[in-house]
């Protein structure tokens, strides 16, 4: 099931270790800055690598990208692959909490 989730609800799940963030941007974008602990699964690799990167199809996954377009596409693909607990977090540009990486003014 796909659900939208707001950053405030997402951070509560992440802090409680009840969900895992998934970044569907490209590796260079991830390196610039990402939600701490997020798994990297570029959109173009979702269909081929989801089982490897996200092995538990019933775990809560919080999917995000830069602005929300790629995350919306990714959650549809994950749903088609049988993932049952997917949240579309949207874009990291609207994430008001900690970001780790080497962002040097890239955002």
From TrEMBL:
EC number(s) per entry: 2.8.1.1
Domain (Rhodanese) ranges: 15-101
First-tier enzyme category under EC: transferase
Domain of life: Bacteria
GO molecular function: thiosulfate-cyanide sulfurtransferase activity
The entry's keywords: Transferase
PANTHER family (alphabetical): FAD-DEPENDENT OXIDOREDUCTASE (PTHR43031), RHODANESE-RELATED SULFURTRANSFERASES (PTHR43031:SF18)
Protein name: Rhodanese-like domain-containing protein
């Amino acid at each position: 099931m796909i659900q939208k989730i707001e950053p405030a609800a997402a951070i509560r799940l992440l802090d409680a270790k009840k969900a895992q963030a998934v970044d569907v941007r490209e590796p260079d974008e991830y390196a610039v800055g990402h939600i701490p602990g997020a798994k990297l699964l570029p959109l173009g690799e979702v269909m081929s690598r989801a089982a490897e990167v996200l092995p538990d199809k019933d775990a809560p996954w919080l999917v995000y990208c830069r602005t929300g377009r790629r995350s919306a596409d990714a959650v549809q693909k994950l749903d088609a692959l049988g993932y049952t607990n997917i949240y579309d977090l949207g874009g990291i540009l609207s994430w008001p909490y900690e970001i780790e990486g080497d962002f040097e003014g890239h955002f």
